[in-house]
Amino acid sequence: MLFRNRxxxxxxxxxxxxxVSLSLQFFHLIPVSTAKNGVSSKSRKRIMPxxxxxxxxxxxxxxxxxxxxxPSVAERSMExxxxxxxxLVSVHVFIRHGDRYPLYVIPKTKRPEIDCTLVANxxxxxxxxxAFISHMSKGSGASFESPLNSLPLYxxxxxxxxxxxxxxxxVQHLQNGQLLRDIYLKxxxxxxxxxxxxxxxxxxxxxSRTLQSGLALLYGFLPDFDWKKIYFRHQPSALFCSGSCYCxxxxxxxxxxxxxxxxxxxKNSQLEKTYGEMAKxxxxxxxQLRAANPIDSMLCHLCHNVSFPCTRNGCVDMExxxxxxxxxxxxxxxxxxxxxxxxxSLLGAHPILNQTIGRMQxxxxxxxxxxxxLYSAHDVTLSPVLSALGLSEARFPRFAAxxxxxxxxxxxxxxxxxxxxxxxxxxxxxxxxxxxxxxKRSPKPxxxxxxxxxxxKRDMFVALGGSSTxxxxxxxxxGF
Length: 480
What we know:
This protein has helices at 2-26, 60-68, 129-137, 167-187, 208-221, 248-267, 269-282, 286-291, 294-303, 318-338, 340-364, 379-388, 438-441, 449-462, 471-476; strands at 86-96, 200-204, 232-234, 310-311, 314-315, 372-377, 402-410, 413-423, 426-427, 447-448. By secondary structure, it is an alpha/beta fold. Strand 7 (402-410) and strand 8 form a beta hairpin. Helix 4 (167-187) packs parallel to helix 5. It is globular. GO terms for molecular function: phosphatase activity. This is 2-phosphoxylose phosphatase 1. It comes from Rhinopithecus roxellana.
């Protein structure tokens, strides 16, 4: 009897402790378990501020780790979710390249030693990495649009070259591709088993990191694909504007936006002090250090867990990093408020959005070409598109970010088509400016395709003000 009473007492005590522990976690009094990069697996994919999972005050290190997007556990996503009577018709994927070596180095410091060869048993690991390396080595005779045919198909330098894709970047997009394969091919049968070359549309800028990122995603999506069916088109512009790149008003918006950025930097005395301290450490003028864009190199150190550089004058440290990253976050906040970047984005993103709805419209007519489109691009590609769509609260594109447009057909009403927009796996359709009020007026779970068409063909120009009703007039209007 005594033993039984003690057992019941211990059981009750254990239950009480469990309740207290869960309560403390709920009220953020003790930390919850995190992934290996220090960010909880649930909050890593957040793109909009969330008062429950976000730190109570903007944390520059937290934001930087989200940007790194270090591969850990498989990501849950909302791609491909729709009522059973909807049929997936086409998918359009915009990606930012994966993790890369910096484009700039901190003057007079040793370059971070990152190995850009691919090693199958080295972290970060992916089960398809070894097969990817083997398949890429067989693609030397692949036919790509010039000048892509002169680029290497995978990174292969013991010490990374400037801007080169890393193994982390390859793994990030192998994961993206496998996730999309599980959803769009295995579940929704978007492409037949005997898919043909004309059912894919592949386009990339002329950088090795974007071509290699596109190939990594494609290999995860279509393992051991037939090289004869693959053709990447070259896009000379980071805006993917093809033959519609000349837009004087867009450039004027950009100049005003850059002026705003400059004035904000001038007002930040702490930022200037930090640049001054760092310049003394590396023994260069403050102006030269600022021009070298040290945040790019420092992010590489952080993402790869490499110590910040030191000289005989001292060390660049985490406090310096926090000040510069905090300013970046403040700059993004003011950018949303001032609206200059929005004007630039509406004109900058219009050509690629116009191309995308053109492909979607052909799919609604029953055409079977270009059912899966992939644009392998940069942060300066995705950021204007996000802004133009009205997703002002979306986080700046992280490494290997993905923005997806899904086109669906209602089987019960075959003439009706709908769209979903997803950013890093999160459904943001009803955050877009063209569909944010739709769900308040309609019970339908997705946005009517005609809303997107009307937005691209008309409302983007209305949002710019003035009387322009087409892209050319909006780009050349006088008196701006």
